[in-house]
Amino acid sequence: MEEALQKICGEKRATTDPFELAPYTRDVAYVPAILVHLLTNPLPKAVVQPISAEEISSVIKWAQQGKIPVTVRGGGSTAYFNCIPMKSGIVIDTNRLQGFSDIELDQVNDRKMVWVKAGMTWKDLDDGLRQRGCAVCSCPSSAPSATIGGWISMGGLGIGSVLYGSVHDQVIAIRSVTAAGDIVELAQATEPSDLQLKDLMGTEGTRGIITEIKLLVRDVPEKEEHLLAVFNNETDTGALMSWVGGEHFTSLYNVHFSSPEFIMTLQKAGYAHEIPPGKYSLEIDFEGKRGDVDNAIAQITSQVKLLGGTLLAAGVGAEEWADRFKSLRLEQTQPSLLAAEMTLPVSQFATFYERLRQLGQKTNTLCVTYAHLVSPDMALVMVLYPSDELNLIRYVVDLSFTNNLYKLGNSLGGKPYVIGFWNTPYLGKIYDKEERDRRLQRKHAVDPHALLNPGKGYKPPNIILNSYVFGFAMLMLGFFRPLVLKVLKGGKGQ
Amino acid sequence: MKTSEELHTQIAKTSYICGSCGSCRSVCPVYREIGWESSAPRAKIALAKEVFLKHKEKKATNQYAQRLQECTLCGKCAEICAAGINTRELWLNLREDLRARGMEHPNLKQMAVQLKTTHNISTFPNEARLDWVEDLDEVEVEVSKAGSEVAYFVGCVSSFYPMSVGISESIVSLLDRAGVNYTVLGSDEWCCGFPLIASGNSRQVTELAQHNLEKVRALGVKTLITGCASCYHTWTHEYPTILGEDLGFEVLHATQYMARLIRQKQLVPGNLDETVTYHDPCDLGRNSGIYDEPRELLQAIEGIDFVEMPHRREMADCCGGGGNLAAVDKDLSQTIAVKRVREAVATGATILTSACQQCVQTLQMAARQEKLPLEVLDVTELLWRSLEE
To answer: Is A3 on the interface with B (CB under 8 A)?
Structure first.
């Protein structure tokens, strides 16, 4: 295998060395080996690092002959095994697909765009564009590690989404390799072919492999300002989030919520001391024309006062903004965090938070929450809670709490953000039956042998992840969790 | 000095913090060249977690050791780390452990033996430390002169390597021109110990630190200056910790001291009509926080068109010469350096400056190898050239 793949990609860009393969069995989340090996076969047989669509095409055609599964991996910065092989096979590591084209100007529609290779990180692209007077429209909160192709393959919501929408709305065209190994260019305006542009967005590399993207970009804004408002309770905080989204400010770029527990955890690690303890904070970021920014700030300043909030000194918001990619600093005092990430209607945010606090109290669980406004009426919420990966029993029973969080979110209109492997039991909560059937139909149409990233996104790959079986298992684990925590005296996380 | 147990506990604790987010990947000069996930800082930390937190000793293989030593210690991963981990400290601790396991690279083992014998990183006897002075016609360099205000700690590279002696010649010429009452230590100067720290052999540094401190203290100087970014870092950050005491005198990098002389009008830079860029040495910039003074010097030279590289200051790329990488994998070090000199050429600069003898040497070799129209100089060399011309 190594020899064949090295013929395609060159000696230094294809490997079967077990030492090199091992890191490709991991993403951000720790999952106990016993669970991983019970449910998956994550160790690839080979990893390749192609530098062109042609090489990817050859790899896929070669893999097809032996019916070998192919899993594509970008930054490996997701947490649901989205880019981890379920059935071994070949991993295509896209990180050598680097670079972007000159900026194109579409005078008719007054917009700018670039062709960018799939393996660039969002931060690298943004840094490169800024040297040319432009910037990305939005980016994930993992921009230093997430790749362009990766985020487009995922949910596509993050910083800047409240103004520019999902990254899927910023994609003009995609160059891709199909499951059959054909190289295609797909654009919104083209006739539907076997593989369509939408097949590649948010589908986690299960229908084709993105190699290059034509992406809308924006001019570097005239002005940016970063405010930090603090509130005494979730009701006022939620009210401001709803109001600010509803006002449709043309310069409102990002709104980031931090719970008192999140702030406290950061403060324990030596950060965020400018924020008064016990407060709910909203970092509100403006980017745009000078007048628009000034006008929005004036209005928001009055609204914050009206809701009983306080704006912290100028500079505090800017500092928080500068650290926008560093939320993991809370791991300094709370390593081994488990999480649930979901989209939630902003109108329900205060209620969600209130019930979350009650749930945390009831189960003796510290819930550390942050969120982004990703549209005028939708927030992307991340709830983290401490566990202990050094204690298998504790860790496994703690997993049930993620299920509780999703249940709570779902009761208020929330949905798990991405699917990957571990969220397949929640597919029924994310899509209705019609949409699930449509998705499955598209998968069969474009990848009939299910060779691209098998086991993800469409249906639970085995009985244990069937929603009923999984739900029952979580219920049982949840039942034993208080006992386990009691025996372990709450564990290190409490 | 940490006990083995303390070292292991510290590594375990730090590696537990890592969330494997991978922010460190795209800024790591080594990962960018090797490309395999195993060379990314997060993968090395994941292995450390296995070894030290989960006690899977079998994971400490030769490949693991090789990856840990394929690192320039540039600290850019620490700068961007989403979890705020002091990764540079972690790499040093891991190298300490490698040495204790007898797994350090043979070239590093050899270097430690060499240093013990000659007290410098070259094969020359330490008595040859001032051979470069013989090339100076107009400047008299006095050794261990009592009553001096300033001692100049030359550093091994610009003492022994012909490519780099221009730096020491420029520094003493500038001190002389400014009328500074200075001295050098000659053969009393021993290696600062930085290469040993970088190879996980900090125990051997104590003797060097004690010796150097004793010799400088005996001179009674108010200020110690050095043109080497790594010597500067070692004197200011490592010695006080290793020796557990204040040094009792001021330590400045040569660029800081020259900037002071210019501000006090003791030194008036000349004129040069050149386009110049500046490479921040990792040990002076990111690891010691000095960014402004080298730029201040360059901008004080009339006629210079100063241009910045895209990767600069806190986010400057490494030259490839740090962390003993050249001793472990010379080609890898050189490939990283080539990238950096190309970035310099892309700015339109004809001169690339730095403030570190190791960086200058590494970048010079890369520029020559690539036959680029780029001269590589230390900031002090350019400053002296402006006065000479």
So the answer is: no
What is d(CA B41, CA A145) in angstroms, rounded to the nearest whole number? 12
Distance from CA of B277 to the nearest CA of A (A): 16
* Chain A contact present for B12, CB below 8 A: no
> What is the dotted CATH code of the domain comprising B269-388?
3.40.50.11810
Strand order in the sheet with B250-253: B182-184, B150-153, B223-226, B250-253
Q: Is B156 helix (H, G, I), strand (E, B) or coil?
A: coil
Tens digits of residue pLDDT in B156-184: 999 999 999 999 999 999 999 999 999 99
pLDDT in tens, B230-268: 999 999 999 999 999 999 999 999 999 999 999 999 999
The rounded distance, in Å, linking the Cα atoms of A99 and A213 is: 11
Tokens of residue A382, six digits: 């991340």
- B82/A19 touch (CB, cutoff 8 Å), yes or no: no
CB-based contacts of A222, cutoff 8 Å, min separation 6: A288, A289, A290, A293
Residues A42 and A115 in one domain: no
A283 and A314 housed in the same domain: yes
- ipTM (interface predicted TM): 0.94
Q: Is B82 on the interface with A (CB under 8 A)?
A: yes
CB contact under 8 A, A331 and B54: no
Work out the mean pLDDT of chain B and round it to a whole number. 96
Instruction: State the pLDDT confidence band at A247, using cuts at 50, 70 and 90.
Output: confident
A73: domain CATH number is: 3.30.43.10
Chain A residues touching residue B43 (CB < 8 angstroms) = 23
Shortest distance between the Cα of B293 and any Cα of chain A, in A, equals 25
